[in-house]
Amino acid sequence: MSLLFMNAENKITIKSVSIDDARLPAVIHDAIGNPSPDKVLEVIGSYKNSDHSITGAFIGNILVGILGLYKTSEVITIRHISVLQDFQKQGIGTLLLEEVKKQYKGCKIVAETDTESVDFYAKSGFTCHEFKGPYGNLRYECELNL
Ligand SMILES: CC(C)(COP(=O)(O)OP(=O)(O)OC[C@H]1O[C@@H](n2cnc3c(N)ncnc32)[C@H](O)[C@@H]1OP(=O)(O)O)[C@@H](O)C(=O)NCCC(=O)NCCS
């Protein structure tokens, strides 16, 4: 466990993030494929629908991680999860997932991801099934019943 983890852990606040938050583009960026500035803003705009929400992890005033989802009946779909590179592997992604698990007890969480991040979901208790993406790339459909 790094010193940064020890410091960060005590100061992390989890709370809702507005789509107008100027810190959001830089954090959601890495969870978006081919993230041109326009595409990032378009994706953020899609969260204005009332069934969508974004939860953030803050260290002081720094937004270090986000988890964006939408809810349809009893299914929660994670659309984006991202932690700033300097703060990765310190438990922040897990904290964001824990918040969703607490909020949506009794629901099913689903997420689609790639080879790079599938282990994050597997380690968080999700069952992940491989499938071939539109460009022949490997993708994973992950799910967890709460
Ligand atoms: C995926 C991501 C959100 C994980 O956040 P994080 O704060 O680094 O995750 P945690 O520190 O809570 O990690 C929990 C566990 O998963 C593992 N893990 C985290 N990211 C991983 C990754 N990309 N690949 C494999 N394992 C990973 C950690 O090592 C840890 O395992 P451990 O408990 O055995 O030590 C983060 O790596 C990220 O932002 N990646 C870029 C964006 C992205 O790819 N998003 C997902 C697709 S939309």
UniProtKB/TrEMBL annotation:
Q: Name one Pfam family in it.
A: Acetyltransf_10
Identify the CDD domains for this entry.
NAT_SF
State the Gene3D superfamilies in the record: 3.40.630.30
Q: What is this protein called?
A: Putative N-acetyltransferase
Write the record's keywords in alphabetical order, separated by commas.
Transferase
Q: Where is the N-acetyltransferase domain?
A: 12-145
What GO MF terms are annotated? acyltransferase activity, transferring groups other than amino-acyl groups
